[in-house]
Structure formats: structure tokens, C-alpha cells
Amino acid sequence: MGGEGTSSLKLVYNVKSRLIKSAWLNSEKVLCRQQDFDWDGKDFNNIVGMDHTDKGTFFRCDVLDSSVSMEWPSDEAKTSPSEELRFETFPARVFQNGPVKLPQFDGRDRGAREYRTRISDAMKSGANFAGHYRIVEIGCGTGYSCVYIADTNSGKVWDFPLGGMEYLNLDLKYSPDSRLIKARWIDGLNGDQADCAESVAEWDGRSFNSFGKTHRGVADETYCSFEPPQNE
């Protein structure tokens, strides 16, 4: 980051975290851009990159005076992306148009071959996301899930961007009639104190476009679920 093309570059970081957030205006000063990185001790690994022309979750770009301002997510209670964005605002555009077409595990979809039986069995039940897709959640360790998204019309399979050991107790919320998906999980952003992380994204048919990520301190793992804790 820096130099030409990154006007009004702003960085936000924290002594207790490996995360660094950046925002800047492009060279024409008409597009607000954001990138989040995870420092592994040697390199910055891009977590998410987004382009915005309006206010984002953690930052603001003002094209009138070419300023960029950002704030670190606080632990104070505030409206989360999942509360602001509704499924009905992002309706599915195309629906399942016939019998389910299964993946080509010996060819195009061989990357998901390890879970071919689980994925195929789940797809036979039809779409459960965005009109003609199937979200397949598979337990792949204690408290961890491996997640795939499969097109019931073409059989194509993608790896879901969240899942595995970095996303403890991943909880997904989605609808067969909407392109929106919401996620919560236990995250170690603040070192010894586990956080509840939350992210919301829109599926465009090829990839998920994130609306940002929020963190809230947690006392126990049930706080991260979309379902309210059960009173004993």
C-alpha cells in the first residue's frame, strides 16, 4: 500500500491483533477501496477486498475533500450487518429448473472429491440457497465445518470461503429464496479473549461479496449462534 493510486491512505491496527485494515481513494478519487490483511510474521495475507462508493461498515471515503476515515470495531453493542441486511432485499433470480445435476468429481469438481458422497446426497434434496444452489455443511473436526456450495442446475461445486479450523462453531443462516448469507463463528482476534465474529455476504453466481465483518467480545460460545441460548 502507498504511492500513486492510494490517495488519503488510512491504516487501522491494534497491538493485540494480527489484523490490519486499510482504506483509500483511487487515483480518480471517485471510488473508496478497502482491504483487510492478516500478518503471519512474514507476509500480509489478504482476507477481503472491497470497492465502495458509499459508507462501509468500518470506514468512510468522502470524495469531496478526498479524506478517508476509519474506526476499529468497538466492543460496545451496535447494530450488526445481519440485523441491517434482510434476506428479502436480495431475492434469488434463477431457480432450479429440473432434476438435480450432480458434480463431476473425476473432472471439474475433483477438488471436492473427498466429500463426494456427502455432497451428492445433500444435493439430491434440491436447492436450499439462492434459488438453485445447495449449501452443504460437513463436520470435519470437533467444532469445525467444511462447507461447499453446489449449483443444482450445473453440478458445479465451490469451496465456501468460511470453514475449517479458523472458524470454530461456524453458524450459517441462509434461505432458498435469497442470495444473502449470514455467518457467525468464534474468532481469536483479540488474543486470549475469544470473540464472536459475524459476516454477511451476497452471492453473485461466482463469488461472495462481503458487506464487512464485525467482532463482539463473548463470555461463552453460545453467544455466537443465531439461535438464542436456551434457559436451563
Summarize the structure.
The chain is mainly beta. Helices cover 5% and strands 42% of the residues.
Helical stretch count?
A: 2
Unreliable residue runs:
53-60, 62-68, 72-79
Number of domains: 2
Termini, distance in Å?
A: 51 Å
* Overall 3D form: globular
Roughly what is the average pLDDT, rounded to an integer?
Answer: 78
> What structural class is derived from the secondary structure elements?
mainly beta
Helicity level: under 10%
Main sheet makeup? 4 strands, antiparallel
* Range of strand content: 35-45%
Q: What is the string of SSEs from the N terminus onward?
A: EEEEEEHHEEEEEEE
Number of DSSP strand runs = 13
- Rg over alpha carbons: 19 Å
- Largest sheet, spatial ordering of strands: 1-2-3-4
Strand and helix map with partners:
Blueprint: E1 7-13, E2 19-25, E3 32-39, E4 44-52, E5 59-62, E6 67-70, H1 81-84, H2 116-123, E7 133-141, E8 144-151, E9 157-159, E10 168-174, E11 180-190, E12 193-203, E13 208-217
Summarize the structure in words.
The chain has 232 residues and is mainly β. It folds into two domains: 64 residues; 144 residues, no CATH class. It is built from two helices and 13 strands; from the N terminus they run ββββββααβββββββ. The strands form four sheets. A four-stranded antiparallel beta sheet has the order 1-2-3-4, with no helix packed on it. Strand 12 and strand 13 form a beta hairpin. The chain is globular.
